Structure formats: structure tokens, C-alpha cells
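Recall the central idea of this unit: under ordinary conditions, the amino acid sequence of a chain determines the structure it adopts. In this exercise we apply that idea directly, starting from the sequence alone.
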Amino acid sequence: MDLNNISMYSGKNKRIAVIDTGVALKSPNIHHYMVDAQNTFNECHTSFIKNMHGTYCSLRILSELPEIELYSYCACNRDGEIDINLVKLAIESAIQNSVDVINISLKFDKFSESLYNTCNKAYESNIIIVAASDGNLSYPANQRNVLSVSSQKLLKGNEVFIEFEKGNIILYDKDFTCNFEGRSIVVPVSSSLASAYLSCKIISAINEYPLLSGKMLFRKLLGVDLYCDTCQEIADTINPNTLVFDSSYAFTELLKFHSCMNKNIKGYYDISKDIFTDFSGNELLDTSDSFLLEVNSSIKEKNSVYAQKRLNIGNHSLIGNFTNPENYDTVTLLQHKPPEIAYIEKISKPIICICGFGHSSSKFYTQVMLHKQFLNKNNAPISITYNSLGYIFDFKVFKYPEKIILPDLIYSINQDLYLYDSQYVDNDIFIIDIAGGICPINNKNNNNFGKLFDSYTDAANIDIVVLCINQAIDPIVIEREIKRIEMKGIPYIYLVISNECYTQASLVHSDGVKSVYKNSISEKEFYSMYKEIFYKYPTYFKSDLDSGNLFNDIYKLFV
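Accordingly, the structure predicted from this sequence is:
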């Protein structure tokens, strides 16, 4: 966001607090506050003592925002000196008065934890604090929850402009000429007046972007991306009368969840019958006006069966990992982007993470099933996945990071979750299908397996882990990883035994991970064996997912 391109707003219906030396002005739009003997700020007739500093800052604000409602807090003690305790009390009072911006054209040399915490209360209340800085270390300007501004005098030209430099804001300013009690006064350029001017720009930005909360606007001002690569919601980007093509077994299993798919999806390509059908099994004879969405949910998978039929539908788009996608429209997946300024924010919604030991572990099936069951209970989950099939269910679909760089990825995931948490206030819970595995399973699966899972557990407080167990993984390995999850402080662990299995060739290993021969034991016996081995943890089979046993046990934790 470039504040230079935002026109000054009149200030009507907006509130700004000026915590300073008081204001020697009278107006119906100015509210004066002084502290009483009980250290409580009360509204009074005047907040001015002797020092004109606060008055000049307020005159600068009123010159830009003539209709602003200004709350003046005198933070001076009986000796006329600024008192940090009064500044904290003034911030508390400003929060109670629901101001939009707090201007603090003051500086303290020493860090105060209590001042930091008070400023953070304002930040959490979506109030932006603007503070003056002389370029050196000073507070509250150098706190991460405050916008810091310094000033430079214009060398040429008359237009004031703002420059951002690594989170610091510099105002290139000119001397301020004001009228006070019939006298014209010239006030030299200073960071105090710069803070006042920037506060006016923030008020104008709030008016121009009414849907952004104060915290979101704060990040946008500092150049931190609020949104990922896609600029529209998936529901708006899937065209009406869309047909899906995916040759994977996973997609066939998911057809029973078609009621949860995007409402614009009207059917799919049935490979077994070699026809397009709707979800009732009726053949779609005329597909000339349809939009084809071809999903490749596996890197190695090739939809070669349909290659010769692609030209039958003109509107053709791809999502996933394709070798030669240049001849078709491609769907852009979301990407984790490290922020320029790192924040770890608290996520208010509960988080369920679904993880496993790699592919063929029914993670996505488990996610869709839980998503559907939460919807049936009138809840509104936010589902995040790295599986391309999530696109047709309106999930947030992220691209698996090509490089996992820590701690950048941790900060990015935290920011992504925090923004979704803030934007979707009516949603109840996160359901996250984490790509890859929680550890390497052989010498070939070395694509950062485990690092993405660890990044999520470091980025947020995970409430529940649903660990999908493939029947080819040795129980000793599973037990080791469960202990590692417990060490992360995750309170609830549920095990789901997949009905799929790795091929023996995919489990050629050199790192000590052993495979179990699935052919040597029936699924029923296998299930019983695992229930006995992992008796400490609730263990489920695919039928338990379908019957709702897993969901019901999870749901009890939230009601």
C-alpha cells in the first residue's frame, strides 16, 4: 500500500487520540482528558498545561482532517514532565473510547515491558499506534506493534511524501505554518509533526479500505503480503458447467462426496465407461459448452487415457503437476511467502492436522470426510491441503514448497493461518492435510519429509493430530514418530489405518525403515494387531471414518 497515493480524508466519523502535553484548543470535536488524584483519566474542559508541543501536533492533524474527532490526553505529571505511566493509562482510556489511531509524538530511551503490553492491547483491538522516532533506538516507536516515523526536510519541491525503508517510515516534510490565537506560527520540521501527519494518512487509509481490520492494515502498510498468489476465491474462479477429469483412484473414492464439491462442477469423466457423466451416473452427451478441469493429483501420474479426447472440450484448464502445461490454462496454487517482518501470532481457532508417512495413506480422504461431517453439524471448517483435488472442494490449496527454508516457512505458515483466522470470523476450525510425511521413509523420499510438518507445529498450537498409518510401515517407526509428536506437546493423537499400501518397490530403503508384508496378513488381522500395539491411542480403520466414529470422538472435544 502506497500512502502517497491515498488522498486525505476529512476525518468525519473517525477518531484519533493524541497522547502528548495537552491541547490549548477548544472545539466541539476535541475531547480533553486529564488524570485525577486516583490516576484515572477523566474528560474535562482543557488538557493544556504549559508546553505547546501537543497543540502544534494537534493543529497539524486538524489542518489535514478538519472533521476528525480528537481525543487529547495530557501525559504530563505535576512537574510538567512526560510520565510513562500516564502514557500507558492514556492508551488504556483511548482503547475504551474506541479510537481508530493513537498518535504518540513522544520518545522514551528505555524499553518498558508494561508499555509494550499496553501498546499490544491497542494493536489487538485493531487500533494503530503511530509514534515519533529520531532514527535512534527509542520507544514506543521501535516496538513491533507500533508504526515508527522519522522526518527529513524537503530539499526541493513542495509536495510532502512518505518513504518506506525496511519497516521504517520516513516523511520528507516542510516547515508547518499554523494559526494560533490570531498569530501565524512556523513550526520546524520534526518527527513529532511527521507522526501527526502520518496519523492523518492512516485515518484516510482506514476510510479507503473499510474492510481491512487495523491489524491487517498495519501489515499492509509495512508491505507484508495479506493474500497469497490467487486474487479470487475458488468459488469465483471455477466456471459454471465444469466437468472434472482425474484418473486417480483417490478421485473415484471421493465421488461420494460430490455434495461438498464446488457447485459449478456438474460431472466428471468416468474412465471405466469412457464417458462424461453427472453425479447420478447419467451420460452427458453434449459437452461442447462445458469447461474441463483436469486434475493431476500425483507427480508421477499421467492422464494419458484422456489425451486424445482433450480437443472435444474447448475450455480446458489444468491443476497439478503436468509435464507440458503450456498449451492449456493452468490454475495457480497458493504459495507460502516469508514476510519481510516476522510475527508469530496466536491462532484463535482449533487446529486439526492430518499427517502420515507419505503417499497412499488416505490423508486427503480423511480430510474430506471430516470436512463433510463438520459441515453436517452446522460448523464451518477452513480446510487447507497440498492435494490438487482440494481445489474442487473449495479448500485452500497450497503448492508444496520447492525449498524449505527455516525459520521463513514457519513465519509464513503462521501468517497464512492468522490471516485466515482474522478474515473468516464465522468459521470454526482448521483442518489441515500436511503434504509429504512426518519423517523420511526411505532413501528416495528425501524431499524435506518431516520439515513441513515440523514447521506447522512450530507455527501454531496444534490441538489434534490425525496420523494416517500406511500398512507397509513398520510399527517401530510409527511408535517412534508418535513419541516425537507427543514431545511437541500436542494433546490429542488419533491413528487411522489406511486401506492403501505402498508397493514393495517404493519401500526400497537404506535408513532402517522396514516394511510389513501386507500379503502375509489379512486387513482384519492387521487392524487387530495395530489396535493391540497402539492401545494407548484411539485407532480407526476406513470403515470408522465412514461411520463417523473418528469424527464423533473428535467432536466431543469441542462440545
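The CA atoms of residues 175 and 189 lie 5 Å apart.
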